Amino acid sequence: MDRSRNQERRKSTRYALAFPIRYRAVPRRGPALTGKGTTCDISPAGLSFVCRDTLAVGSHIEMVAQWPANAAGRCPLDLQMTGFVVRSDEVGTAVRITSHKLCADAAAALAYRASA
Q: What is the pLDDT of residue 20?
């Protein structure tokens, strides 16, 4: 079977979304690396983002993204994800997501309640 180089191999459609992300990458050897970046695209199975660091392929990564929508129009939401780095270079970092959950940003929710 002849496969074209441009043929899409991803199982899930990725959506172009740019929002802030914080991460903590733990390589197989060496210290954990924390940083910030901006997402490029995202799906239930993976995401890509740009950051200043080149992360080690195979690193376990924990990420928190500031979701662009609010709960009931009031409380900021965070998308918390874990996964593994599958590619990282000067162009960006790609991650295979193993778990994700959308939850209220606790600190922002407390600030919102205090101002209401």
A: 93
CA 90 – CA 20 distance, rounded (Å)? 18
pTM of the entire structure?
A: 0.76
Residue 50, sorted as left (phi over 0), alpha (psi -120 to 50) or beta, turns out to be beta
Which residues are CB-neighbours of 91 under 8 A, at least 6 positions away?
A: 50
Segment 33-41 mean pLDDT: 95
Q: How far apart are CA 10 and CA 98, in angstroms?
A: 15
Domains of the chain as residue ranges with CATH: 15-115 (2.30.110.10)
**Predicted confidence (pLDDT) at residue 70 exceeds the cutoff of 90:** no
Q: Give CA separation, 94 vs 47, 105, 114, in Å.
A: 6, 24, 38
Backbone angles phi, psi at 28, to 5 degrees: -65, -35
Write the CB contacts of 45 (distance below 8 Å, at least 6 apart in sequence): 10, 11, 12, 96, 97
Side-chain-side CA neighbours of 93 within 13 Å: the count stands at 30
